[in-house]
Write a structure and sequence with these properties.
It is a single chain. The protein is an alpha+beta fold. The chain has helices at residues 2-5, 20-23, 27-30, 49-58, 73-110, 119-128, 183-188, 195-213, 267-277; strands at 33-37, 42-46, 149-150, 154-158, 172-176, 219-224, 236-240, 256-261. A hairpin with a 4-residue loop joins strand 1 and strand 2. Helix 8 (195-213) crosses helix 9 (267-277).
Length: 279
């Protein structure tokens, strides 16, 4: 190609012929790497410490700016090594934090059920397919088969109770697969790292299910207050914007935390809002 042709005739350059200051290649020295330019690409190969010292002696301009003006090669190597450590350490720390964040997010959805072994909580656990409830006898009055819509991280089913004031008074319940007893438990789980991500997922999935199976339009998205929730398995209640259901919507945060949702694009912002008012 024309690009490769442009490299033809360029001789192989030896490491000591490079002026580090002009080429800005000093970071390469910390990893004991020498640079060679070939006609088509750059090749990095390891070189010995002795060859590196020779390079410094032959080219005094390779002395690091942070050293004294005497051109001490051991000083240059030491300063370069310390500079690399300063540059690499934050990146390693950041990568470690990212891995921890990813692990925490996964743990949010894998939290095992630790509630009662009967009643509505066990029913919710079974419908959510929490691993802790696998192979247990169905505790749901309506049965456990073909009752819920299963998503990647949530499960959605109709509340047996109904709202009022809607053209369709159906109320959808959306629960995470991971177990949280109530909004307060979610708030404190894993240092609060689950809070916004779990609520966002619940909002997105419940919105999509309601628009598809119940009716299009604005809805209320509500969590019962932790002290008044009768079923101790976290769940979001979704019903029409004109409707009322179990004292919701309300501004009384002890009773419930509610937000009006008009589009799926509002989910992330509403999740942050709910995270500040649930309790």
């Amino acid at each position: 190609s024309s690009q490769l042709a442009a490299f033809r005739g360029i001789p192989l350059l030896r490491p000591q012929s490079y002026t580090l200051r002009s080429m800005a290649m000093r970071p390469l020295l910390q990893s004991r790497i020498a640079l060679f330019v070939s006609p088509a690409f750059l090749v990095y190969i390891a070189s010995s410490g002795e060859a590196r010292a020779d390079s410094f002696r032959q080219d005094p301009t390779s002395v690091d700016d942070e050293c004294d003006a005497l051109g001490n090669s051991s000083c240059a190597v030491g300063m370069l090594q310390r500079r690399v450590l300063k540059q690499v350490a934050p990146a390693v720390e950041s990568a470690s934090e990212n891995r921890s964040a990813i692990a925490d997010i996964g743990a949010c959805w894998d939290r095992p059920y630790t509630g009662r072994s009967s009643g509505s909580e066990m029913c919710f656990c079974q419908l959510a397919r929490n691993p802790a409830c696998a192979d247990t006898e169905c505790a749901c009055p309506q049965g456990c088969v073909s009752v819920a819509t299963s998503n990647f991280r949530t499960v959605i089913f109709k509340n047996t109770a109904r709202a009022s004031g809607c053209s369709d008074n159906s109320v959808l319940l959306t629960a995470p697969r991971g177990y949280f007893r109530d909004p307060a438990d979610l708030s404190g789980a894993l240092g609060g790292s689950c809070l916004v991500s779990v609520i966002t997922e619940l909002l997105v999935d419940s919105w999509s299910a309601y628009q598809t199976s119940i009716g299009a339009g604005k809805v209320w998205q509500c969590f019962h207050g932790s002290e008044v929730a009768s079923v101790k398995y976290l769940h979001l209640q979704t019903f029409c914007y004109a409707g009322r259901f179990h004292g919701m919507p309300t501004t009384n945060r002890f009773v419930a935390a509610c937000v009006a949702m008009a589009s799926v694009g509002e989910a992330s912002g509403l999740a942050v809002k709910l995270s500040g008012i649930i309790g």
